[in-house]
Design a protein that fits this description.
The protein is an alpha/beta fold. It is 44% helix and 15% strand. The protein starts with a strand and ends with a helix.
């Protein structure tokens, strides 16, 4: 089970493990993905039929590739009333939060009489990848689609694998609630390639978002440049900063909530009280016995998770900033006092009653977050991911004349004579 560490040597050794975790390498899968993408580019629907029949559904037919609005509604209608209310409440909260991120076009008058600004334009076509197979992720639909809706994206295409023709009703119900324009029964690298390049059936998009397995991640990397992508998502992680005032039951449950995701998920508790660390470890063992995902927990707790004991909260925050976690919980009575000290985190969960799972589903902020240390330079998925910013410049003759000599000097210094000429002719 999970180990308690406190020596600087053990901490540094564990940090080296975290650095290597979840890397998307150019290993054995890379050529497979490149071949699939090339095949879809060249053969379009024929390639989709080949790979979908091979990997997902031996009875797949291209004529049934799209899930109709009626099928989506039927999936929604099959849910119990409480689940329907939960989906709509989650949708409304996510939409409301992202409304605060919405930008508008702006201009201002410059000192020379010119007008300068920025035009905000929604991306026109977006593809959303939603994982299928063993698990259902209706929350992925909500979190990827709602900021696009707020941004004003006109066409949203969702792809998700239908294993033996089956898609979890919760996923389809979420697409219905979010008013997704098209839903297609395809997954894997072939779905990403279809979105990026288009086929006879599937329209090419401008950007692809959403999580997936190693094949999806590599395919997104392969098509990047032809289309935009959100990120290459890594395995999930949580870092919890706690002290002796923290509730051991809360900490243990939150710790396991990430460790249960997959075998290389990471949970780290950094606590300034050794007695509390031992108490939490015992609680983790107790909750572990009730889990139906012990096989996953056995690996994630052993390989990628630790309880770290430090001298004080300030030291804990310093270590958390080094980890730059996807999810950071500040399980402290005066948690808000430490928010300004956090420099690297995808999302900060403040106080004893803000568990990470609240953010996964119902809080409102996006749960698509930077992983594996990329919170040092990446941000959560948001409205900005679904817009384009275009610079606006408008000079009168008088305003332009005041800068022509400077443009002339600058252009000639770079050896670009026609640049200089383009400015000078306006002053002649």
């Amino acid at each position: 089970m999970v180990e308690i560490i406190k020596s600087s040597k053990d901490i540094e050794a564990f940090f080296e493990v975290l650095k290597k975790r979840g890397a998307v390498s150019d290993g054995e899968y890379s050529k497979i993905v490149k071949d699939i993408v090339k095949d879809v580019i060249e053969n379009k629907d024929k390639a989709l039929i080949k790979y979908t029949t091979k990997f997902d559904d031996p009875n797949f037919e291209i004529t049934n590739i799209e899930v109709s609005k009626e099928e989506q509604k039927a999936a929604f209608d099959s849910l119990n009333e409480n689940m329907k209310k939960v989906l709509y409440r989650a949708k409304d909260r996510i939409y409301s939060y992202h409304l605060h991120q919405k930008r508008t076009t702006w201009m201002y008058d410059g000192e020379l009489g010119e007008k300068l600004g920025q035009k905000i334009t929604p991306i026109e076509n977006v593809g959303v990848y939603v994982p299928g197979g063993k698990a259902a992720y209706p929350s992925s639909v909500l979190m990827n689609v709602m900021p696009a809706k707020v941004a004003g994206v006109k066409n949203i295409t969702m792809v998700t694998p239908a294993v033996k023709g089956y898609i979890n009703p919760l996923v389809l119900a979420s697409a219905y609630v979010c008013e997704v324009d098209h839903v297609y029964k395809i997954g894997g690298a072939q779905a990403v390639a279809a979105l990026a390049y288009g086929t006879e059936t599937i329209k090419k998009v401008d950007k692809i978002v959403g999580p997936g397995n190693i094949f999806v991640a590599l395919a997104k990397r392969e098509v990047y440049g032809t289309v935009g992508i959100d990120s290459i998502a890594g395995p999930s992680e949580i870092c919890i900063v706690a002290d002796n005032t923290s509730n051991a039951n809360f900490l243990a449950a939150d710790f396991l909530s990430q460790a249960e995701h997959d075998e290389i998920a990471s949970s780290v508790l950094i606590v300034s009280d050794e007695a509390k660390a031992i108490e939490v470890k015992n609680k983790i063992n107790e909750y572990y016995k009730t889990s139906s995902r012990k096989e996953i927990l056995d690996k994630s707790l052993l390989n990628c998770s630790r309880i770290i004991v430090v001298d004080n909260v300030a030291e804990a925050i310093k270590l958390a900033n080094r980890i730059a976690p996807e999810h950071l919980e500040l399980a402290l009575d005066n948690a808000m006092d430490y928010v300004d000290d956090v420099t690297n985190a995808g999302a900060i969960f403040i106080g004893h009653y803000t568990p990470e799972s609240l953010g996964d589903y119902m809080a409102g902020p996006n749960h698509v977050l930077p992983t594996v240390g990329t919170a040092r330079f990446f941000s959560p998925l948001g409205v900005d991911d679904f817009i384009k910013k275009t610079s606006l410049l408008s000079f009168t003759k008088d305003a332009a004349l005041k800068l022509i000599d400077d443009v002339d000097t600058f252009a000639m210094a770079e050896g670009l004579e026609m640049h200089a000429l383009a400015a000078r002719v306006r002053g002649e």
